[in-house]
Write a structure and sequence with these properties.
The protein is mainly alpha-helical. It is built from ten helices and three strands, in the order ααααααβααββαα. It starts with a helix and ends in a 9-residue tail after the last helix.
């Protein structure tokens, strides 16, 4: 391979990302996967990580110390009856541990965005209610995230590509749920 080709490949981010497959799957990836399969798998992981990180950076830049995990909690509360859910329901819906969600709620409660209360009829359960300031912030951050996703994801795809991705990911989600994974592991 010429140094010119090596330089071009080293500068190509797709080549760099695809090369990671050997780190994860070893030599089997080089022998068993086509270049397209390698880019599909590693590209999925890379794009998801980059978009999530950049989406969180956009939310943080516009709204201070708000993570996508915090937005996941507040967004669920905003849609709930009386903007209230059991903490355990939130954790299950997010595919997160109760302790992880509890830490997110601690942060939100400390900022006056949510409040905890005893659950009537079940002393073991805790209700989380979105406060008016939390509802306002949630709507603002959701607007920022919506604009980010539109510009960074949907604007880069045509309708047929979106349809294809939706069909592929729906099938893969169903397979992972069938394998015992939670339906919603996102923030």
């Amino acid at each position: 391979m010429s140094s010119r080709t090596e330089t071009r490949e080293a500068a190509d981010p797709v080549t760099s990302v695809a090369a990671r497959a050997a780190n994860m799957a070893g030599e089997r990836a080089a022998v068993g996967w086509s270049p397209e399969q390698t880019v599909a798998w590693e590209g999925l992981l890379e794009v998801a990580a980059r978009l999530r990180r950049r989406g969180e950076q956009a939310a943080l830049a516009a709204h201070g110390d708000v993570t996508l995990g915090m937005l996941g909690v507040m967004g669920r509360l905003l849609r709930a009856d009386a903007m209230t859910l059991r903490e355990g329901e939130i954790a299950a819906d997010m595919g997160r541990s109760l302790s992880r969600v509890s830490r997110l709620v601690d942060n939100l409660e400390g900022r006056g965005l949510v409040r905890r209360s005893a659950c009537p009829g079940d002393r073991r359960a805790i209700h989380i209610t979105l406060e008016p300031a939390g509802a306002d912030l949630t709507r603002d951050v959701q607007g920022t995230v919506f604009e980010f996703v539109q510009a960074s994801f949907f604007d880069a795809l045509d309708d047929s590509e979106v349809d294809t991705l939706a069909a592929v990911f729906a099938r893969l989600i169903r397979r992972t749920v069938g394998a015992g994974e939670p339906a919603d592991g996102a923030g």
